[in-house]
From TrEMBL:
GO MF, one annotated term: D-cysteine desulfhydrase activity
Protein name as catalogued: Pyridoxal-phosphate dependent enzyme
Modified sites of kind N6-(pyridoxal phosphate)lysine: K42
Protein origin, superkingdom: Bacteria
Family, as annotated: Belongs to the ACC deaminase/D-cysteine desulfhydrase family.
Coiled coil spans: none
Pfam families: PALP
Keyword set, alphabetical order: Pyridoxal phosphate
Cofactor dependency: pyridoxal 5'-phosphate
Tagged with keyword Oxidoreductase: no
Active site per the UniProt annotation: S69
Ribonucleoprotein as UniProt keyword: no
Organism: Pseudomonas alloputida
Length: 297
């Protein structure tokens, strides 16, 4: 096995009454289970970046995120596992969260950029001082985005396809997954090339750039976006938290409230609204993120 090869994520049925009522079958691809530390879709998004860093003999990797960031968490763990130093550029001012403590324990060097400094992350010239300070290091855009991130997500499709026969399915009809930047969604759309529909549940408001990101990486066909953020990224309400608790009790699958819980709730609403014909077979991608819920659940 190559060092950057990925473990197989299990695929299993989700038994929920609202699926059964609509005669829709759903299985979940458990990216949350691939590794105790490098969890979820972030691992797939990092893979090409790790390969590029390895190929160019980069001494380390630098990226950005917030103080509950699943992306920085996966990056710090991957760096430690595969022998790269890591630097995290964080939004806001120094804070002590379970994620930040893990980043430090995994050896990531942290720089707090403040809010204004973090907002400058997409401006030309943002990386120059960091490249001067860390010469030859590999810089990764926020959230592991870009084409390298999307390409790594093609493997998500392969992992699911390799297991659908085990469910007794000859094929499946559609994908359902949470979208934050839309990079993972774009990766699936690229890999599918129109073969199966891809549905993205937006964990952020529609005007936060997901449609543009997906269009830039994968074009405008082969997918649909659904509003799922419930008032904003990171906003929770009682219906959401009750829904998560109920699904966890019925299925044993842990969810968090930023992405996977909201995505599954949006799926319930769309299934109830008749988006999928009876007999449809869906793959719900569990994108991980459970480390982040120590901050709030
Ligand atoms: C980051 C993340 C997403 C969003 O992935 P994108 O590729 O940015 O759309 C979805 N779910 C979880 C759990 C995440 O951590």
């Amino acid at each position: 096995m190559h060092v950057f090869d990925l473990p197989q994520a299990p695929l299993h049925f989700l038994d929920l009454p609202w699926l059964e009522q609509a005669q829709v079958q759903a299985a979940t691809l458990r990216l949350d289970l691939i590794d105790p530390l490098i969890s979820g879709n972030k691992w797939f998004k990092l893979r090409h970046h790790l390969q590029q860093a390895g190929a160019s003999n980069a001494p380390g990797l630098i990226s950005l995120g917030g103080n509950h960031s699943n992306h920085l968490h996966a990056l710090a763990a991957a760096g430690k596992r595969f022998g790269f130093a890591t630097v995290g550029l964080l939004r806001g001012h120094a804070q002590d969260t379970p994620t930040v403590r893990d980043l430090q324990a995994l050896g990531m060097e942290l720089h707090w950029l403040g809010y204004g400094g973090y907002r400058a992350r997409n401006e030309p010239g943002f990386w120059e001082p960091w490249q001067a300070r860390y010469p030859g290091w590999h810089c990764i855009p926020e959230g592991g985005g870009g084409l390298a991130g999307a390409q790594g997500c093609a493997l998500i499709m392969q992992q699911a396809r390799a297991q659908i026969a085990g469910l007794g399915w000859s094929d499946h009809d559609a994908w359902w997954l949470a979208a934050g930047t839309g990079t993972t969604l774009a990766g699936l759309v690229l890999a599918e090339a129109g073969a199966h529909a891809v549905h993205g549940a937006l964990a952020v408001p529609r005007d936060h750039g997901v449609p543009e990101t997906v269009a830039a990486l994968a074009g405008t066909h082969g997918y649909q976006l659904h509003d799922a953020c419930r008032g904003g990224f990171g906003k929770f309400d009682d219906e959401l938290l009750t829904f998560i608790a109920d699904c966890e009790r019925r299925t044993g699958v842990p969810l968090e409230a930023l992405y996977t819980g909201k995505a599954l709730l949006a799926l319930r609403d769309q299934v109830a609204a008749g988006l999928f014909k009876p007999g449809s077979r869906l793959i719900f991608v569990h994108t991980g993120g459970l480390q982040g819920r120590r901050g709030y659940l």
